[in-house]
Amino acid sequence: MTNLQLIGAREAGKILGVNANMIYKLWHENKLDYWCIHGTMKTNINAIEAFLERFRNTDTPVLE
Questions:
Q1: I want to staple 20 with a disulfide (CB 3.0 to 4.6 A). Which of 3, 7, 9, 32 is the partner?
Q2: Using an 8 Å Cβ cutoff, are 20 and 4 in contact?
Q3: CA-to-CA distance for 3 and 55, rounded, in angstroms?
Q4: Which helix (H) or strand (E) holds 36?
Q5: Do 42 and 7 contact (CB within 8 A), yes or no?
C-alpha cells in the first residue's frame, strides 16, 4: 500500500508556482483531482503529476 499524503491549496500552489486561488479554480474546473473531506479540499502529488502529464506538450491554456 502506498502512502497518501494530502496537501492543501497553498502547498499545491507552491509546487505548481501559482497562488492558492488558481488551485481552487483548477479543482472547480475538474482539471486537477482532489478529495473533499469534511468540506476541505485536498490533493496529492500523484494528482499533480497526472495534471502535469495531461497538459504536457499541448497548446491548451491551463492556467488562465
A1: 9
A2: no
A3: 25
A4: strand 35-37
A5: yes
Quote the pLDDT of residue 3.
72
- In contact, 7 and 43? CB cutoff 8 Å: yes
Beta-bridge partner residues of 7: 43
Predicted local distance difference test score (pLDDT) of residue 54:
86
- State pLDDT tens for residues 6-62: 999 999 999 999 999 999 999 999 999 999 999 999 999 999 999 998 888 777 666
**Helices of type H across the chain:** 9-16, 20-28, 45-54
Residue type, 26: L
